[in-house]
Amino acid sequence: MAVALAAADTYVVVLALTDMMTGVGLGIDALQKATPIISGFLLGYIAVLPLIGRLADLVARQRILVACLMIFVVGSAITALAVELPVLVTGRVLQGIGGGGLVPATLAIVADLWPAERRGTPLGVVGAVQEVGSVLGPVFGAAILAIADWRMIFWVNAVGGLVLAVVVTVVGGQPLRRPRGIPLALGALALVVGGLALAAPARLATDVTLGVPFVPLGDSTSRVLTPIGLLALLLVLALVAVTAPHWWGLLKRADLPGAVLLGLALGSVVLTFAASDPEREVVGPLGFALLPVGAVALGLYLWRHRTAAEPLVARGVVRGRARTSLGVSLMVGAALVAVIVDVPVLARLTLTDSQTVAAFVLVRFLLAVPVGALLGGWSLRRFGDGLVSGVGLLVATVGLFVMSGWGDGSLDGPMATVVLVLVGLGIGLALAPVNNAALADAPADAHGVASALVVVARMVGMVVGLALLTAIGLHRYYGTVAALPDQTDTKALLAAGIVQVQTVFLGAAVAALLGAVGSVGLGLTRRPPDDRLATTGPPLSTTKLG
User: Fold this and answer.
1) Spatial CA neighbour of 449 closest among 31, 55, 27, 168
2) Which residue among 15, 147, 149, 479 is buried most deeply as judged by most CB within 10 Å?
3) Neighbours of 532 (CB within 10 A)
4) Comparing 46-55, 479-488, 518-527, which segment has the lowest mean pLDDT?
5) Are the CB atoms for 499 and 480 separated by under 8 Å?
C-alpha cells in the first residue's frame, strides 16, 4: 500500500502541473522554469536510493519504511503549503526521497519473508502495484481537482502517509522508538512554527502586532526569509544537532562519503537529462558542467568502493546476474518511458485534440503492465528468470517495431489495442525476473542495496532514454521539415511529427531487444536454491525489528 501511494505520486503532477505553476507565481508560458518541479522529485527519488537501500540492510526494514513514510509526509505538507518555487521544489525532493525509499525496503522484506525459489509471485505483486500507480496517479489527481485545488492532492498524500506509517508499525509487530524530551519538543515546535511560516494565515499575518514575525526581511518576498521562517529553520538545525548522536554513527557505518559521491554522480545524470528541452538540446543547460562533475564523482566512488572497509555497495553485490539485472532494468526503463510519453503524442497528432482522450489511449498499455508483472512473477515458479524476461522483452520488441510503422488512423482499430496490450504485458513480464535475479545472487545482508540499484537502473533508463530518444526523433522531424518544398503544408508537417514518434518507438524497440538479449545472462532455467545466498534474514518478529 505504501509503494502504491508513492508510485501514484510520481504521476500525480501530470494534470496538476499548470495549477501548481500558477500557485507559485509562474505563468503558463514559463514551463521551462517549472522543470525543477519534476526533476526535483526524480533527483530525490534516484540520488538517495542507494543510501536508503544500504540503511535497510543495517537496521530493521520496519524502521526504514516508517522513516521514509514520514519524510514523504513532510514533503507532501511542504508542497501543499508552498507559494514560491524553491519551497515547492524542496517539498517535491523530500517526496521523492521518501517515496523512492519505500521500494527497496519493500523488496528486501520480500527477500526476508520468502526463500529464493518462492519469491517470484510476491515480487510480481510489488512490481504490479508500482505500475498501477501510473494509472491511479492521474486518476487520483483528476478526482481531487474536480472538487478542490491542487494543494488538496498533497494534503491527502500527507494524511495517507501518516495512516500507513501507523499501519506499518502495527503490522510489523514491534513498537518503534518514540522521541522523548528535548527532541520531541524541538520536533513539535519545528512542525508548528514551520507550518505557520509557510501558511502565513491571513488573520495573523495582517495583524498589526502578531503579523510582525511574518514580515519578509529586506527586499525579500519569501515566507522563509521572515523572522518566523528563520526561527523554523533554527529549530530544524537544533533538532538535527540534538538527535545527531542517534543517527550519525549509522550513517558512517553505511558509508556516508560513498553515498554522497554516488548520489552526486546520479544527481548529475538526472539534472543533465531531466532538465533538458528536447526541442533544442539533449543535454540540459548545466549539463556540460554537471556531467564532468558526475564523472569525477563516479570515479572517486569506485576508488572508495575498492578501498573502504565497508563500502556503500558491499563488494560482491554487483556481480554475475546482478550486474546483468542492472543492464536489463536500464533497457526496460528506456522502452517503458517511450511508450508512456509518445503514445499520447501520436494520439494528439492523429486522433484527437483532447489531452484527456489521448491519455485514455495509453490506459490500455498501462493496465497491461501490472498484469504482465503478476504473470512474470508467477511464471518464475516454473521458468528461469532469463526466459521469462527474455520472452517478455521479445514480445515488447515486436510490438514496438509494429508501432514504429504507425501513422494516421493506426490508433482507430482494434489492432492498436492488441499491440499496446502485448507491449505492456511484455515489459511487465521483465519486472519480477530482474529483481529476483539480483536478490538471488546478492548476499542476504545486502538485499536492500541490491534492490535499490535495480530500481535506480530502471529510473536512469527512463530519464536518459526519454532525452536521447526524443532528441533523435526531433532530429528526424527537423530534417524532414527542412526537406519539404512547402513548409506551411499542414498535412506535411503532421506527417513529419508522425516520423518523430515513429523514430522514438523504433529506438524503444532497440532498447527492448537489447534487454531481451541481455536477459540470457539471467539464466534460462530455474536455478536450485543456494543456501549460502538464498537463506532469509532473521525473522521479522525478532532481530530484524529489534
Assistant:
1) 55
2) 15
3) 8
4) 479-488
5) yes
* pLDDT given at position 280: 60
Q: Is the confidence at residue 184, as pLDDT, over 70?
A: yes
CA distances from 530 to 192, 319, 380, 502 (A): 52, 16, 16, 45
Highest-confidence segment of 237-241, 410-414, 530-534: 237-241
- Which residues contact residue 457 at a Cβ distance below 8 angstroms, ignoring those fewer than 6 apart? 325, 326, 327, 329, 330, 333
Q: What is the largest CA-CA distance in the chain?
A: 77
| pLDDT exceeds cutoff 50 at 538 | no
| Cell of residue 511, nine digits | 532498447
Provide the pLDDT for residue 284. 63
Residue type (1 letter), 278: P
Residues 299, 322: Cα–Cα separation, whole Å: 21
What's residue 31's pLDDT? 64
What is the chain's alpha carbon radius of gyration, rounded to the nearest angstrom? 24
Q: How far apart are CA 234 and CA 135, in angstroms?
A: 41
Residues whose CB is less than 8 angstroms from the CB of residue 218 and which lie 6 or more positions away in sequence, other chains included? 225
Angle at 22 between CA 17 and CA 26, to 5 degrees: 100
Estimate to the nearest angstrom the gap between the alpha carbon of 308 and the chain centroid.
Answer: 29
DSSP 413: S
- Nearest 5 degrees, angle CA 183-CA 188-CA 193? 125
* Dist CA 451 CA 457 (whole Å): 10
Assess contact for 541 and 174: CB atoms under 8 A: yes
Round to whole Å and give the CA distance between 37 and 485: 41
The C-alpha angle 449, 316, 381, rounded to 5 degrees, equals 70
Q: Within 10 Å of residue 278's Cβ, how many Cβ atoms? A: 17
Q: What is the pLDDT of residue 34?
A: 75
Q: Give the C-alpha separation, 111 to 177, whole Å.
A: 25
Task: Report the SS3 class of residue 12.
Answer: coil
**For residues 80 and 152, what is the distance between their CA atoms, to the nearest angstrom?**
7
DSSP symbols for 209-245:
TTTGGGSPSTT---SSSSHHHHHHHHHHHHHHHHHHH
Q: Is the CB of residue 437 less than 8 Å from the CB of residue 465?
A: no
Do the beta carbons of residue 337 and residue 462 sit within 8 Å? yes
- Interatomic CA distance for residues 274 and 341, integer angstroms: 14
Close Cβ partners of 362 (under 8 Å, ≥ 6 residues apart): 339, 340, 343, 344, 347, 420
Over residues 8-21, the mean pLDDT reads 79
Q: How far apart (Å, rounded) are the C-alpha atoms in residues 440 and 450?
A: 10
Read off the DSSP letter of residue 151.
Answer: H
Is 116:365 a contact under the CB 8 Å cutoff? Answer: no
Round to whole Å and give the CA distance between 196 and 201: 7
pLDDT beyond 50 at 139 = yes
pTM of full prediction above 0.70 = yes
